[in-house]
Design goal:
about 425 residues, mainly alpha, 2 domains, 19 helices, about 65% helix
């Protein structure tokens, strides 16, 4: 029978043996090169996890030395157990963080899906970039999961158990792989990362609070806008980068039973779905003036009419939100955060290249051809495809096939570009 110290030393050394079996992903994950995450993301993840393993190994070794030393020998079994318990909790944290990234990277081995996810990484990188490079973009990695909506674990935020997330991890809903709405969901989550890098939520709250302090009949609306601002700026980012594809995708996500579409309040960071779609239309109209936004808003109101089924108080709130919406949208799109050096959000998004007429012209010029679309900036191509869908010039069946081909191409192109840079040679031409 072991003594208390002997038993705990055995348990601590057992932790070390299990830790040694947690190997770098580069040694255990099987995936084709085109499905791999970017080299920046791979290095950041591996380095973060290696640091965690190294720190934990040092803690375990220090604990074993303490047990064997005079202080450990003089301590009580209760104290020995207390220290070991905290050590084991730290071990479980390291494993949970490993599993977090393992869930993301293991999908890269799935036939088809793995390469498409790598293509979505490329789209996400492009959607995050702004003219003038006002911030250093983190690496982004995508994975799919069940569920209705997308989500993001932003880079440089705290991970469960401590530590700073080395990459942005974007979860996209499996029901959108690969088809209509994938760009909307993806770029909305990218918008959360972009908003954090520009500190948009904090900088917008000051003018929103000022509007509340003015009082008057619009005060309840400005209070709601302040509560919802983090989701609204992410929607703005999505509309700015992929145009009407964003609004159509949003409509797909929030097309729920009527009771849910009108549900929401100050405790939920998401706007009332009915208002959220109209906000998306209003922001689209402000950035890219075109009759399509008014038509979409009208269709949405036909789907979910405001009538006597709703309580009077709720109808009044919706009415005041509608009245204040134009002023609110102007405030947001013309906002000049410090990080942009005097430029407004509208100016930072380079709106000229994504006006609906230009997107339609780009589609016409390409003739819907994969060969002619593949060379464009990925988020711009997504906007072109979304506009073609909205204009009735692209069927859902053709869209799905085109998106799959494009995501595969972008993933392969990044892989070859990375390899070419490594050997200092130009990348070979890709076959159609």
């Amino acid at each position: 029978m072991h003594s208390a110290a002997g038993l705990l030393e055995q348990e601590a050394r057992a932790l070390l043996t299990r830790l040694a079996r947690v190997r770098p992903f580069a040694l255990v994950e099987s995936m084709v090169p085109a499905a791999a995450v970017s080299s920046e993301a791979q290095i950041a993840i591996e380095q973060y996890l290696a640091d965690g393993r190294r720190e934990l190994r040092a803690r375990v070794q220090h604990y074993v030395r303490w047990l064997r030393g005079p202080r450990g020998q003089a301590s009580t079994p209760e104290e020995m157990q207390r220290r070991f318990t905290f050590l084991r909790l730290r071990f479980n944290v390291v494993l949970s963080q490993f599993d977090l990234f393992a869930d993301v990277l293991t999908q890269r081995s799935e036939h088809g899906n793995g390469v498409w996810l790598a293509g979505l990484d490329v789209v996400a990188d492009d959607a995050l970039a702004l003219r003038g490079k006002p911030f250093e973009s983190p690496a982004l990695v995508c994975y799919v999961d069940r569920g209705h909506g997308a989500a993001i674990r932003r880079a440089r935020t705290r991970l469960p158990g401590g530590g700073e997330n080395p990459v942005a991890v974007v979860r996209v809903p499996r029901e959108r792989m690969v088809g209509s709405g994938i760009a909307s969901s993806l770029v909305h989550e990218v918008g959360h990362q972009g908003a954090a890098l520009l500190d948009l939520v904090n900088s917008l709250r000051a003018p929103l609070v000022a509007e509340q302090r003015r009082g008057g009949p619009g005060q309840p609306a400005w209070l709601m806008y302040e509560r919802w601002i983090s989701e609204i700026v992410a929607d703005l980012w999505s509309v700015a980068r992929v145009g009407v594809a964003s609004t159509l995708g949003l409509m797909g996500v929030v097309s729920l039973p009527r009771a849910f579409v009108f549900r929401g309040g100050t405790e939920d960071p998401h706007p009332i779905p009915w208002i959220r779609v109209l906000l998306s239309c209003a922001m689209g109209s402000a950035l890219y003036p075109h009759p399509q936004w008014e038509r979409l808003a009208a269709v949405w109101e036909e789907f979910y009419p405001v009538n006597d089924e709703l309580p009077e108080r709720q109808r009044e709130l919706l009415a005041v939100l509608r009245r204040t919406m134009p002023a609110f949208v102007r405030l947001v799109v013309n906002h000049r955060p410090e990080a942009l050096g005097g430029a407004s959000l509208a100016e930072a998004f380079c709106l000229a290249e994504r006006q609906p007429a230009r997107l339609a012209a780009l589609w016409e010029r390409a003739g819907g051809s994969f060969d002619r679309l593949r060379g464009g900036a990925p988020s711009l191509v997504m906007a072109v495809i979304g506009q073609a869908r909205a204009d009735g010039r692209l069927t859902p069946e053709a869209e799905s096939g085109l998106l799959a081909d494009l995501l595969t191409y972008w993933a392969l192109r990044r892989t070859l570009d990375t390899s070419a840079r490594a050997v200092r040679k130009p990348p070979p031409a890709l076959a159609s």
